[in-house]
Amino acid sequence: MALASPGGAHAAAGTFVYHTQAGAVPHELADPVDGRCYPVGDAHGVVGNETDRGAYLYDTPDCRGPAAYVPTGFYAVGRFHSVNFVP
Fold first, then answer.
1. Sign of CA dihedral 9, 41, 60, 44
2. Once rounded to an integer, what is the mean pLDDT over residues 54-80?
3. What is the mean pLDDT of the chain?
4. How many CB atoms lie within 10 A of CB 26?
């Protein structure tokens, strides 16, 4: 049995995959923390949300402003600068 403290950080299970150059080796975020902003530089190309949380992709490095949504289990093509995950 696993116990968690109230108010502790929860994490998505799985991996979010993205590229910073077309055709380049993919980068991975494993088990990202819910609600945390992950700056990713100038990511573009195919992204894969292999987590159990929805991913929001932002044009800014601080997860502010309009976002594109990538549901769990989906792949997309786009350009973004930060990502966060919401249950």
1. negative
2. 96
3. 88
4. 13
Q: Which residue's entry shows tokens 């992204």?
A: 47
CATH code for the domain of 65: 2.60.20.30
Please calculate the CA angle 75-78-82 and round it to the nearest 5 degrees: 95
- Look at residue 82 and tell me whether its pLDDT is greater than 50: yes
The length of the chain in residues reads 87
74 token code pair: 């989906």
54 compared with 8, residue with greater pLDDT:
54
Question: What residue numbers bound the domain in which 30 lies?
Answer: 14-86
Statement: residue 1 has pLDDT above 50: no
- The pLDDT assigned to 9 comes to 63
Give a yes or no: residue 54 inside a domain: yes
Number of structural domains, the chain?
A: 1
Establish if 6 belongs to a structural domain.
no
